[in-house]
Design a protein that fits this description.
The complex is a heterodimer of chains A (about 280) and B (about 350). Chain A is of the alpha/beta class. Chain A has helices spanning about 20-30, 45-55, 70-85, 105-135, 155-175, 210-220, 225-235, 245-255, 260-265, 270-275, and strands at about 10-15, 35-40, 60-65, 90, 100, 140-145, 180-190, 200, 240-245. Chain B has a single domain (about 55-345), classed as Rossmann fold. In chain B, helix 2 packs across helix 14 (about 310-330), helix 6 (about 195-200) crosses helix 10 and helix 8 crosses helix 9 (about 230-240). Classes of the chains: A alpha/beta (about 280), B alpha/beta (about 350).
Chain lengths: ~280, ~350
Amino acid sequence: MGPRIELRGATALVTGAGSGIGRATAVALARRGATVLCVDLDEDTAEVTAASCRDHGAEAEALQCDVADRRAVAALAERVTRDHGPLGVLVNNAGVGMSGGLADMTPEDWDWIRSINLDGVVYGCQAFGPAMLAEGRGHVVNMSSGLGYVMQGSEIAYCTTKAAVLAFSRCLRADWHRHGVGVSAVCPGIINTPILAGTRFVGEMGTDRAQAMARRLFSRGHSPDVVADAVLRAIERDRAVVPAGFEAHLGWYAGRFLPLAVTDRLARPLPAWLTRSAS
Amino acid sequence: MSGRPGPLGRVRRALALAGVGAAVAVAVDRARRREGWLADTDPLGPKGCALPEGRSLVVATDDGARLAVTVAGPEDGPTVVLPHCWTGSRGMWGAVARRLVLLGHRVVLYDQRGHGESTAPDGHAPSIPELGHDLRAVIDATGSTDVLLAGHSMGGMTIQSYALEHPEHFRDHVRGAVLVATAARTLGREVPAALVTALLGDGRMEWTRRGAIGRRLAARAVGSPRRPRHVQLTLDAFARTPGPARAGYLAAMSGMDLRPCLRSMDVPVIVMVGTRDHLTPPRAAKVLVEQLPDAELVLLPGAGHMLPLEAPDRIVDSIRRVARRADARRVSPAASTASAGEATTPTA
């Protein structure tokens, strides 16, 4: 299918644009000639991303917003629509991580990750969607994850929110198809971003050893530019789901063909003899 | 099977050859595409290492060195001074400087003596203290106050040497520092000057510039993803630096120990290091963080040694965060460390 929006000259908004995948995506959109609105909870880092976009020859602006705050997102949408008109591209990227089992999580932990990873995406679509639908063109990219379809017992909260984002995106895509607005879910694998810095580790995953392992794993990850590329591909080819990175592709296709008995077993923690040698 | 292949065997052989050929073609195509992708997604952007527009001046030091300086950005903006790395030049900081100017900073860039367009007096022996004196001279000559310093590699040593040689001046003029991929001590003992000169002096230009060894060494300075352009920039800068400066400063760095200065650097500091930095590895950064009174470590997963090329945005993040912390400290000097900790969004 052809693209729903021409990137050159479009207005694109990226949440979580102050670091990692969000920053790489904002810069990639700038490279394609879009006007980029960089949104982050931390305005300082959003400003740096905007400066980087301008250095790449695009127009850019930094905006502060907490995506988990429905009113703040609505106010942002009002301001953006007033200043720039309806968005051409919306990238709901802001997200956090949580590692550990359900028994070790407090109710606040759950509210925290759900409100950012899932509610943030829903609020973004609700606030910016109507103007895009009225315009009859545009594209929404929601950041899911490889862990949105590869289940892991130790990442229960993260997997659940990202699987929900995947389901939400696919339903929304089916719904908004007739209005001319494309919706995609991008599912990154292991990407070396600062996400671990904003990750809550609880219970068994809170030990220094488990965190050191996670750090080592992430330092071997793909560059965030790989995901930025996937976002561009999702928009330019109007794709429903785009895995980013080898392991995300592997998980996506393996999930289709492996029997449930196998994926069920794979979701369990690694056997001790495998993890011991890694420390 | 043996002997002459029959007609069927020939077909099979041809098919196998075609298969291998196709595999090679696919591999070459992928490699070429990856190279294009690496160039396309270069964080330096289309302007590469170009300096921001600004005025140039030459600062003459007491001992006769002439330092080429560029001052860019609004005159009333918060000043950032950026000393570059060994065998580098102002250009190494180009991408960072342009972003800082876009964010309203006044940026002071200079070539360290013996590097780029700066000259050292005849017959002088390169040493680390003189780099500190030069930084002071640049700060004075440009009338900079409330300075934020960011030094990469040898530039980070320049900052430490400045703090060691001119502690009062440092206290009065500097409000924060970012130490990028640097160390207080490398080998900890002098390597014979004759050896470094033989390896890095002008006599060995060609193999270091064109040969596989020079390329391999430059490639080791860059982390993952290894962008050919960053390797080339590193190698070009190395080849442009005169042999005596290359050899002299490497020998000087091998013998130095700047750890005594760290306690007196009582300003907010961020120490940045890539996990794949082989030249100033993360453990060197940890020493800095442990000894500095108010320092924070920023680990860049996968990155190598050439952070101003590999991660210019992350460096700008750190400079602005140090400025934030310095402001917080000014408001409540007693609770400096605590308030800095609160304002902090965690970094790995």
